[in-house]
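Priority: medium. Attachment 1 of 2:
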């Protein structure tokens, strides 16, 4: 009996310590969390939020998902790619340009104008094990309620290939066929993300280091193509692919 009481107390203390660490980590990384969207001078609304992103490197680069960045801007409407920084009424708009992107890994790097912003640190390329406690901060329902970053936490539930075998060939779609040729590993999380979370940094609770990028579209289409009603499972692209994209473009980053 005493043994079970000891175990319960240990779990409570561990959970309390983890919560305290998360409080500190959120305060540290929140200034690096940005929204990614489009500014239309003549539009109503003028600003539209497409997804989330996070600042890296020298404070003038932002990482997000490839699918978050518009394929084409309306020149006649003078549209511009922008990022939104800050929160609530203090939120500001900064112009951005696309540096490079990877459709395969659904990643994009933007360069922002103006003064550098606080940057997040990147973890190393090694995959984190299942059971690791993680969190992500972004904009799960866009800017409907204003620009207020929201944090979700959970664990890495699984590390698996982007493609899931199916029993019936009729369940295979085009996206799945492309990934069948050369699948790569992704994190599956037990925390629920929403479309606006696409591009959010997945980070260690203890250190705030980025270990992946939340993906809510491309990976889900491949792995859950056999499910008629999507399960709401969240996936994240490992940070090693972010590092590859940064090194390709000679962008320095902090670890």
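Attachment 2 of 2:
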């Amino acid at each position: 009996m005493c043994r079970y009481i000891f175990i319960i107390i240990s779990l409570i203390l561990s959970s309390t310590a983890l919560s305290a660490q998360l409080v500190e980590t959120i305060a540290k990384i929140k200034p690096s969390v940005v929204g990614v969207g489009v500014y239309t001078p003549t539009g109503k609304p003028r600003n539209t939020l497409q997804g989330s992103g996070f600042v890296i490197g020298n404070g003038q680069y932002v990482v997000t998902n490839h699918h978050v960045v518009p394929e084409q801007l309306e020149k006649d409407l003078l549209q511009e790619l922008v990022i939104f920084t800050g929160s609530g009424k203090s939120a500001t708009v900064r112009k951005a340009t696309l540096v490079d992107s990877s459709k395969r890994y659904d990643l994009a790097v933007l360069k922002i104008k103006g003064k550098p912003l606080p940057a997040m640190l990147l973890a190393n390329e090694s995959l984190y094990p299942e059971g690791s406690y993680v969190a992500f901060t972004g904009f799960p329902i866009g800017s409907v309620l204003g620009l207020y970053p929201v944090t979700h936490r959970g664990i890495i539930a699984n590390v698996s290939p982007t493609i899931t075998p199916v029993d019936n060939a009729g369940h295979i779609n085009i996206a799945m066929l492309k990934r069948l040729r050369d699948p790569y590993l992704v994190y599956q999380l037990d925390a629920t993300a929403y479309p606006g979370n696409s591009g959010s940094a997945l980070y260690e609770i203890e250190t705030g280091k980025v270990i992946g990028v939340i993906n809510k579209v491309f990976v889900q289409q491949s792995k859950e193509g056999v499910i008629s009603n999507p399960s709401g499972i969240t996936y994240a692209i490992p940070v090693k692919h972010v590092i590859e994209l940064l090194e390709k473009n000679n962008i320095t980053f902090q670890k």
